[in-house]
Amino acid sequence: LNLTSPLPKAFVLVRADDGTPRPACVSLSYARGAGWMDANETVDAVPLPPDLHAWVGEFVERYYRPRPKFKRARK
Predict the structure, then answer these.
(1) Cα Rg for the chain, rounded, in angstroms?
(2) Which of 37, 7, 42 is nearest to 22 (CA)?
(3) What are 29's strand-pairing partners?
């Protein structure tokens, strides 16, 4: 979803354990970024550089496979 949006972003989780803000983790997933924000973490959304966008796009095309849909059995 992020790769096909008009403004793709990288979501940077920022932690300040010793008082100095530092990046702790980076994700390109909207779901992961939203999860961090829902957990009241500090998250910066920065524009995705074009060369990284191209590289990730190739990776996703090659390896991403959506989960097969299934129905859960009712007990």
Answers:
(1) 16
(2) 42
(3) none
